[in-house]
Amino acid sequence: MKTLIVLRHAKAEHIAGLADRERPLTARGERNAREAGDLIRPLGPELVVSSPSVRTRRTAELLGLDAPIEFERDIYEAYPDELLALLRRTEAEVGTLVLVGHNPGAHELVVSLTGTDDDRFSPGSFAVIELAATWEDVAPGTGRLVRMHHP
To answer: What is the top-level taxon of the source organism (predicted)?
Structure first.
């Protein structure tokens, strides 16, 4: 069984004139990212895949996980089918993966995999999903929501 943790980046600043991809985390966002790491760490993630935007990159780093972080530009503004395609490329030996992304794609991926629609998926929220499929076979409906966390 595989475990997927879908994490929406933590709370980011809105700064006039700053490109969306360059938005930094707020102080609360940094605190929430560290707290998420404390909750995710016991699950033993082996890989973190993150959008390369400033806020997702910083969220991934602040998790403090003992796992490599890979940055995938395709996560930025991705739809669930694009995120599924990305997950299908995950190496078979990875048991637990953290995906750090953006809404609405991150939330829609959780809904697609689990059929569970918690209408809250605020910044810093994450879902822990057990998959009844290999990475290459992951598809809508192949997941079971184990835990949902909102900061």
So the answer is: Bacteria
